[in-house]
């Protein structure tokens, strides 16, 4: 038994979650004090404003920003609400499938069964496990959807406010954007922890001492979160790229107008895409990883001596880690918004990176305290049919390795084209498995995500700043203001890379932890590649990420083509559009991108969700183990390759547009129209 009492544990976890929610609401309130409607309470004539907009009335600019913000918010809300109609149907159908599959294992038995690991005890019937797992799935799915939706709302709420604060200086704009990102980060981390904790408490009233059944049913929470993340990422990603390609190909390439020019019919859809893809999609994605890591760690612990001996505090170790993470991230956020000030654009990126370093250092101390207070000095894990003795300091190193691996990934992905973090992740996995088997890998993934509030705040900051720059362009604000928003956006490009690195690294660890939980529960002692069933599964599994990627790229191409055709149609048929005397039909472009992305997200999503069910039903658990192993290894490689390749292309474009060198200028910097001669270079 650890030194932390059960009663104190039951207070600390929900208290930390409630503190996180309260802090998020405080940040929201502070952001809301920036007015965008141009009313008298905004008082944009005060002496804090460093400059007046040249040739532009302040009230007129504020009203324009409010109109643009409203259009982006309406478009993003419309997309997500339409997407959720599809997801509600999916949730209902898949919940029924879960119930049928799990209930049919014992013929929908209502009789108690002998426990698998707690010998001599009886566990709850299969029908009850099926019902509670289905309920946990619905709770996880709902929380994931809510996380994405709230993130989108705060992002669309803050984008114009960031633009207007840029008139007071880059520091004011930075604080507004970062606080807005913090709202999303803390709401996601706190809501995810609180819902999971309450679910465990409520489920425990039925399961009682059957912790094996309790935490097996709780795994449905992680499945619900990750399944919604899949559709959120795919649907939002297709929308984002379709709108981006349509706006750029016709607007920038064919018509030679600037990016975010209000004459471009797809410009609102492009800004909407930043919110539904990079905000709502990323929020759901990281929540899915967070929920899966927590559930995997809880399940593996439940079949160890911790679970068999009913050591509640040690069992709650993953939740306590997340609780400490919320407090650490709160301190780190205050460091960025209240204890330091951005005075120059050169200070933005170092400030963001400082958040990662400080939160990691503080979290290391927190992990050490929790590991020695909450865990017994030694306990036993069941590791593929064998028993492994684990000490509390083993767990400290596992979580810390995951935490610092996340920091390393965050820094290295800044360079995009480098895949140097692949070996780092591989070494960390080896150390974690050596110290504490699959439980070590699960808590390491949780360690990487323990500072998710700060990580997500930094990640959400990027699209908010990007939107702010677009609004400044569309509202006709001065060049100096646009320079400030561009500086915020440039730092946001780095943070986007950090977010992708965290997503890939945590997903790899979580997937391995879930694979370990699966083989443990399925009673598989080893995955032998020489077995024909397993080998076939490996080949099919390795193919799946490529198939999935090909389907999504084809979907983006199809949706983007429809957008290109619509933008061309408007330029060709609406008199005065190029002259700026009439407004384009923004709403129709938003509708086209929405309809196309939602229709195209179904086949890739179905491929991921149905493959394990069909494989396991028709070919058995050994083949399914091969499919999961193959897709895990292949998926990590595809993710690293695609992320680095896309980042390299994006950086090359920005390098040329900025005219960063004489060589770059020879290709034509931003705003330069390439002639026939330069096309042959």
UniProtKB/TrEMBL annotation:
Its EC number is 7.1.3.1. It is found in: Endomembrane system. The chain crosses the membrane at residues 12-31, 86-106, 126-152, 173-203, 287-308, 315-336, 356-375, 395-416, 436-458, 502-524, 530-548. InterPro entries: PPase-energised_H-pump. The keyword Nucleotide-binding does not apply. GO terms for cellular component: endomembrane system; membrane. The keyword Acetylation does not apply. Its main location: membrane. Keywords: Ion transport, Magnesium, Membrane, Translocase, Transmembrane, Transmembrane helix, Transport. One of its GO terms (molecular function) is inorganic diphosphate phosphatase activity. It is a multi-pass membrane protein. PANTHER family: K(+)-INSENSITIVE PYROPHOSPHATE-ENERGIZED PROTON PUMP (PTHR31998). This is H(+)-exporting diphosphatase. It comes from Salix viminalis.
């Amino acid at each position: 038994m650890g030194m932390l009492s059960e009663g104190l544990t039951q207070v600390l976890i929900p208290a930390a979650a409630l503190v996180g929610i309260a802090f998020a609401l405080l940040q929201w309130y502070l952001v809301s004090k920036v007015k965008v409607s141009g009313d008298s309470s905004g008082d944009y004539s005060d002496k804090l404003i460093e400059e007046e907009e040249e040739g532009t009335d302040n009230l007129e600019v504020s009203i324009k920003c409010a109109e643009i913000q409203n259009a982006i918010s309406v478009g993003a809300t419309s997309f997500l609400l339409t997407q959720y109609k599809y997801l509600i149907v999916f949730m209902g159908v898949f919940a029924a499938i879960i119930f049928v599959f799990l209930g049919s294992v014992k013929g929908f038995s209502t009789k108690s069964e002998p426990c698998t690991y707690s010998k001599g005890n009886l566990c709850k019937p299969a029908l009850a496990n099926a019902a509670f797992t289905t309920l946990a799935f619905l709770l996880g799915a709902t929380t994931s959807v809510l996380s994405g939706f709230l993130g989108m709302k705060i992002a669309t709420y803050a984008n114009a406010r960031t633009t207007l604060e840029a008139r007071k200086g880059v520091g004011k704009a930075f604080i507004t954007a970062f606080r807005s990102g913090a709202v999303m980060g803390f709401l996601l981390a706190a809501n995810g922890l609180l819902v999971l904790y309450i679910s465990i408490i409520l489920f425990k009233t039925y399961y009682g001492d059957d912790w094996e059944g309790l935490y097996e049913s709780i795994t449905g929470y992680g499945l619900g979160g990750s399944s919604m993340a899949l559709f959120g990422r795919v649907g939002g990603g297709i929308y984002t790229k379709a709108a981006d390609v349509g706006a750029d190909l016709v607007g920038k390439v064919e018509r030679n107008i600037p990016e975010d020019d209000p004459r471009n019919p797809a410009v609102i859809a492009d800004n909407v895409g930043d919110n539904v893809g990079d905000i709502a999609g990323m929020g759901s994605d990281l929540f899915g990883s967070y929920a899966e890591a927590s559930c995997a760690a809880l399940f593996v612990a439940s079949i160890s001596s911790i679970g068999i001996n009913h050591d509640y505090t040690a069992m709650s170790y993953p939740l306590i880690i997340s609780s400490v993470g919320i407090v650490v991230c709160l301190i780190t956020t205050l460091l960025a918004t209240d204890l330091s000030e951005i005075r120059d654009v050169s200070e933005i990126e170092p400030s963001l990176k400082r958040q990662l370093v400080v939160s990691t250092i503080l979290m290391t101390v927190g992990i050490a305290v929790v590991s020695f207070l909450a865990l017994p000095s030694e306990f036993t894990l069941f590791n593929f049919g064998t028993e492994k003795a684990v000490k509390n300091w083993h767990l400290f190193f596992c979580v810390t390795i995951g935490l610092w691996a996340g920091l390393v990934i965050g820094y290295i992905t800044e360079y995009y084209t480098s895949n140097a973090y692949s070996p780092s992740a591989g070494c960390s996995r080896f150390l974690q498995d050596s110290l504490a088997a699959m439980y070590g890998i699960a808590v390491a993934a949780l360690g990487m995500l323990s500072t998710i509030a700060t990580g997500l705040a930094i990640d959400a900051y990027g699209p908010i700043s990007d939107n702010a720059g677009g609004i400044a362009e569309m509202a006709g604000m001065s060049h100096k203001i646009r320079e400030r928003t561009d500086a915020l956006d440039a730092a946001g490009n780095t943070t986007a890379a950090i977010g992708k690195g965290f997503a890939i690294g945590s997903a790899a660890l979580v997937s391995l932890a879930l694979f370990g939980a699966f083989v443990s529960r399925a009673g598989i002692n080893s995955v032998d590649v020489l077995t024909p069933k397993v080998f076939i599964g490996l080949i099919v599994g390795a193919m799946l990420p490529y198939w999935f990627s090909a389907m999504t790229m084809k979907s983006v191409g199809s949706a983007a083509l429809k957008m290109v055709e619509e933008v061309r149609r408007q330029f060709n048929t609406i008199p005065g559009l190029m002259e700026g005397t009439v407004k384009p039909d923004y709403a129709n472009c938003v509708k086209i991108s929405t309809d196309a992305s939602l229709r195209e997200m179904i086949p890739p999503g179905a491929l991921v969700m149905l493959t394990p069910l069909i494989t396991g039903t028709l070919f058995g658990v050994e083949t399914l183990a091969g499919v999961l192993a193959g897709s895990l290894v292949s998926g990590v490689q595809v993710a690293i390759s695609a992320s680095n390749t896309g980042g390299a292309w994006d950086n090359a474009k920005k390098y040329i547009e900025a005219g960063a060198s004489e060589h770059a200028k020879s290709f034509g910097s931003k705003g330069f129209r390439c002639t026939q001669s330069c096309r042959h270079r």
